[in-house]
Request: fold
Amino acid sequence: MSRHYIKYPIAYNIETKGLVNISDVTSENKKDLICFECKEHFNCILNHDTPHFRHKPGSNCPGNVESYLHWLTKECFKLIKEIELPEIFISNLSQADQKELKNEIDVILEQNVPDNLIFDFRKNLKKSLSKSGKYQIQKVNTEEQFKSEIGTVQVDVVAMINDKNLFIEPHYTNPIHPEKLKKLELIGTPTLSITLLPFIQKFNSKYTVNDLCNYLVSNAGKYWTFNKKETVQKLIRNYLKYIKVEISKNQEHFNIHLAKIEKLRELENEVKVLQKKISPTEKKIWQLRKEMQDLKKEMGIIDYYDI
Reply:
């Protein structure tokens, strides 16, 4: 799509160094509104079903919708003071950690839960290792460079929370590249991804700075791409403790179930003993019935049930 036809709902004010919604354009600030990517002045399209900014015809701006959203998101992070961090799900763990956790869970369940109850018990266990929660942001830096063992990496947003860094990587259609993710993992700082696709699907180009800030503060679109090994191990230990607590809560139910299983086995054994005792008698009865039927046929006697 030509830059001239892309609808931008928010511009950058070169005088105030702040963001301006298309709805907040005035005759005073109109001349100061630019595209942050190419620094060209925007046209303000106000008499339109969807008011918006756009580049002037013939613009050579190298940006696109994705790079615009990327820049805009980083600018919005400079405005927000808190953020809701999502749960860490079992599915967020590495394949190795998921396998380790599954093996430990299997051992606990096999030792403590009746075999035919394991499936339902496992199905009802929570899938998250931690709870979501809102945290105050002490400081935000954008586009900060960090060194790893395999090269330098630029982090989109670095938020300081509880005196510790959190890397935040917003994206629209392209998640973190595997090479960049490897560098982030080597640095060892928890990394959170935010997909902007649901936001754009909801608002299209009809959104404000406040709309985007609210989205970034909320739990929407967030998922963990990396957490420290010690953090993961602590969460795994706590999750195993949680399973043992759940087993303890269900112990009476397990005991009742085991008692019923034992009673069922006793009844099955009793039936087998009786069956063994009456088996010769049943066999004799069927032999006698056969002889009776054969004799009746010879005599021409027809029973009612034979008609």
